[in-house]
Design brief:
182 residues, AhpD-like, mainly alpha
């Protein structure tokens, strides 16, 4: 059970902040997940929603790459809600079960090389706080500078989501795959 009462309705925030709720609902269709926690700080929620809209929906980074990075971040942080949301998206994008399993079980066996590149970059950045030269150069060659920075920004965005859902103990959404944590 979440540590904070989830904010799922506009009337749960001050009148001056209700436009923020409206904009979040307009961009996402509902109040759910981390935003039910972020709205305890409406100004932050609004700014994150704007960033998240770009990271999730508007940037030029391939959606499959985004979901691989997001799943890897969720796994590294053991973030139940984010993992459940991202695995559903991965399956809709036809990410192979072997890739989802490798990320879930913290290994690289069975990962296609193009998936392994994203997972390895994300793991290095989160575990070592840096990326080795070979991995960096390979991603620049594959994506170019803009997409590499978008990928790095997506990893940061999903890290913030994961930290929030973990601090607030937000559980996986109804019907979502539940990550087994240590």
């Amino acid at each position: 059970m979440a540590r904070l009462t989830p904010i799922t309705r506009k009337d749960q925030v001050a009148a001056k902040d209700q436009a923020i709720v409206d904009s979040i609902v307009a961009s996402r269709g509902a109040l759910q997940g981390p935003f039910t926690m972020f709205l305890h700080s409406p100004e932050l929620a609004g700014r994150l929603a704007h960033l998240g809209a770009y990271v999730r929906f508007e940037g030029s980074l391939d959606m499959r790459v985004r979901v691989l990075a997001a799943m890897t971040v969720a796994r590294e942080y053991e973030a139940l809600y984010v993992w459940g949301a991202q695995t559903g998206g991965a399956r809709r994008l036809n990410v192979p079960e072997s890739t989802i399993t490798a990320i879930r079980e913290n290994h690289s066996r069975g990962l296609p090389p193009e998936d392994a590149q994203i997972v390895d970059f994300t793991r290095q950045l989160l575990r070592k706080h840096r990326v080795d030269d070979a991995t960096f150069k390979a991603l620049v060659a594959r994506f170019g500078h803009d997409a590499l920075i978008q990928l790095t920004g997506a990893i940061g965005y999903y890290s913030m989501l994961c930290m929030t859902v973990n601090a607030c103990e937000l559980e996986a959404g109804q019907g979502a795959e539940v990550l087994k944590t240590s």
